[in-house]
Design brief:
4% strand; mainly alpha; 71% helix; globular; four-stranded mixed beta sheet; 17 helices; Zincin-like
Length: 422
């Protein structure tokens, strides 16, 4: 059968879906190749801005790590696209629906079982990639600290949390889809957004401790320095904590978590080992810059509008037979609409990714400028250089790849901007 005849027999939405899937795949493949080639071409010389603090050996290790991750991501990309086709127009979802529907349960119970089964199968299929990434790729470059037992324990905990937290939310969403009428999507969005706020409040106290140990910062001198900084910035928190991040990875990090009185500052233990007190203060000043510039609030508001639009689109698509049939599904159901939308939305929204990255990098510049006004800009530069070195972050990303994906500006651009504040 010729390609033209094959296409003419396909539903229009199937053709649109395959076109967008191929377009997204082609862009991702092209961007990965650009990144791979650009990093390889600049592997043998350290950029001038970093030559005094990063050796050629460190720079080459970072390049090797970046290239290895890109090459691994190419395999993940191929596998992910094949799997998506098999689940949709390949009939995978339709087959799973038939297997579960034979029990003749009510729509909501069937939907919950269907989505749980889909999630478990998908997780099992992607497990080899997670294992390879952790125990081969990260291990090769000296980052992995996790044991196989800890890896499996984390998976079990995540599954239990899904049952305890996600299933009740899923039940409410499916019930609204079935019973709340034309504007169910508006009520469902309200439930989802409220749930997100509750989780932001609850995560630091009830969920994070299930995976990591948190302890109060012991250094009184550093604690006083941080408290003075927070006082200058008008920020209050319920604690300054150290997390045992090193039990899984040698990558260091710091972050804020929680809402209201539950806001906490969390440092990875290995970050504290890498930086001196002034550098830690400068890094924290950057994070406080996000708070002071209301970046977190802005992101929450933008995400609220984006997800509201998503629920509205789902409300429309749920009523369209062509949406199901075009994606390989015969029987219309509320849970199938939810799964199909979740699976395929990224195919159609991927071309918009650079917009999100652009705003994120803008926020990073603003946070850096704020940090320079509250702490030593040179110390923030020194801290960033150490973090780039310790995490094997490439100093020479491809400009287009970085503009498309990166939430943070490239190292050289970021350092140049900070030096304006010296």
């Amino acid at each position: 059968m010729s390609p033209n005849i094959l296409l003419s027999n396909m539903p229009l939405f199937t053709q649109i879906f395959l076109f967008m899937l191929f377009l997204t795949f082609a862009i991702q493949w092209w961007l990965n190749r650009r990144q791979n080639n650009h990093v390889s071409q600049h592997k043998d010389s350290v950029p001038n801005d970093f030559s005094e603090k990063i050796t050629l050996e460190n720079h080459q290790k970072s390049a090797d790590y970046t290239i290895a991750k890109i090459q691994f991501s190419q395999y993940e990309l191929i596998f992910g696209n094949i799997l998506l086709i098999l689940w949709t127009i390949g009939g995978g979802l339709n087959w799973l629906d038939v297997q579960i529907s034979v029990y003749a349960l009510d729509a909501i119970t069937t939907g919950i079982i269907f989505i749980l089964a889909f999630s478990l199968i998908s997780s099992a299929l992607s497990l080899p990639f997670s294992l390879y990434n952790t125990f081969v790729l990260e291990e090769k470059f000296g980052f992995n600290r996790s044991s196989f037992t800890l890896f499996i324990t984390d998976l079990v905990k995540q599954f239990v949390l899904m049952l305890v937290i996600a299933v009740p939310l899923l039940y409410v969403i499916l019930w609204l889809m079935q019973s709340a009428g034309t504007f169910w999507w508006l009520y469902a969005w309200g439930v989802w957004f409220s749930f997100s706020l509750v989780m932001m409040w609850a995560y630091p106290s009830f969920i994070a401790p299930l995976f990591n140990k948190f302890s109060e910062l012991e250094s009184l001198e550093l604690k006083q320095r941080i408290e003075n900084l927070m006082s200058r910035c008008g920020f209050t928190s319920s604690g300054i904590l150290v997390m045992d991040g090193s039990k899984r990875s040698s990558h260091g990090n710091a972050y804020f978590t929680g809402l209201g009185k539950q806001k906490r500052i969390v440092f990875f233990d290995n970050l504290l080992d890498s930086l001196d007190d002034e550098e830690i203060e400068a890094v924290l000043a950057h994070e406080l810059g996000h708070f002071k510039k209301k970046h977190i609030t802005k992101r929450m508001v933008s995400m609220a509008f984006i997800t509201l639009g998503g629920f509205a689109v789902l409300g429309y698509l749920m009523q369209q037979t062509w949406f199901y049939n075009g994606l390989g599904v015969e029987n219309i159901s509320i849970y199938m609409a939810l799964i199909l939308f979740s699976l395929t939305a990224s195919v159609f929204t991927f071309p918009l990714s650079p917009i999100s990255s652009l705003f994120s990098r803008k926020h990073e510049f603003e946070a850096d400028d704020y940090a320079a006004s509250q702490a030593d800009a040179q110390k923030l530069i020194d801290a960033l250089v150490k973090l780039y070195k310790d995490n094997f972050s490439t100093l020479t990303p491809d400009p287009i790849f970085s503009a498309w994906y990166d939430s943070h500006p490239p190292a050289s651009v970021r350092v140049k901007n900070l030096r304006k504040n010296l």
